[in-house]
Amino acid sequence: xxxxxxxxxxxxxxxxxxxxxxxxxxxxxxxxxxxxxxxxxxxxxxxxxxxxxxxxxxxxxxxxxxxxxxxxxxxxxxxxxxxxxxxxxxxxxxxxxxxxxxxxxxxxxxxxxxxxxxxxxxxxxxxxxxxxxxxxxxxxxxxxxxxxxxxxxxxxxxxxxxxxxxxxxxxxxxxxxxxxxxxxxxxxxxxxxxxxxxxxxxxxxxxxxxxxxxxxxxxxxxxxxxxxxxxxxxxxxxxxxxxxxxxxxxxxxxxxxxxxxxxxxxxxxxxxxxxxxxxxxxxxxxxxxxxxx
Length: 293
Description:
This protein is of the alpha/beta class. It has one domain (8-284). The protein is built from six helices and twelve strands. The chain has helices at residues 8-17, 29-41, 117-134, 185-197, 244-258, 264-267; strands spanning 50-51, 56-61, 64-69, 79-82, 87-90, 92-96, 100-110, 139-148, 158-159, 168-169, 212-219, 274-276. It has a five-stranded mixed β-sheet, sandwiched between helices. A three-stranded mixed β-sheet has the order 2-3-12, with no helix packed on it. Helix 3 links the parallel strand 7 and strand 8. Helix 1 runs antiparallel to helix 2 and helix 3 packs parallel to helix 4 (185-197). The protein is globular, with a radius of gyration of 19 Å.
């Protein structure tokens, strides 16, 4: 399936209820599409610069740039980036002609077995370091979503199975939220570790840090599947999901637009003068479209 326009609610519900093989990445693909489309509509990045290619194309007339919804141009590709240690396929990448990759966002989803979050942290640190070695100016983002499997005092509590496998009982290591609604210790430790990875501002800062990190817990076996768990992370946390996109836009502008005025015509984020054939109402997006005044 090619990249398509989805809302955050649709992507998160899919993640919370998907019962196929997670190795296929199909449980997380709609979130890749959501990020790619949001970078176009809200971020003002040309769809032609983004991998996977979102279902949009641009038409330019002088200084005016219109955005047309067009599913025929969409892809489901990943871009391979040359790292300092190895090449790396990254989920969503913005590339500028003559510059190379300027933004790379990894989107990871975990449905259980939370004891393995330590491995996920090691991977995240290694991927970030690898990319920043070759591209120190790259704006790197890391988004992680976790199924907020809740411990429930009930006779039967199950998680979706893998592929054709039957549903399986929730094990202790699959629990993210305790009976009282509080995150378990493993999740708190993961949050604290992610918080230390966030906030890289300058190209001479630690290459193992991301410019932006977000963490979200998504209801699965309790409440409405796909709803975000409110209250954790706290709103003042450096990895609260509401802060993610504003951070990457700010760092990108500081690094590629304001600090390099000679190439501003190439790097400046666009404002859309017209948007046609959008299949859903802009009010459903959950964010503002970047429009020209």
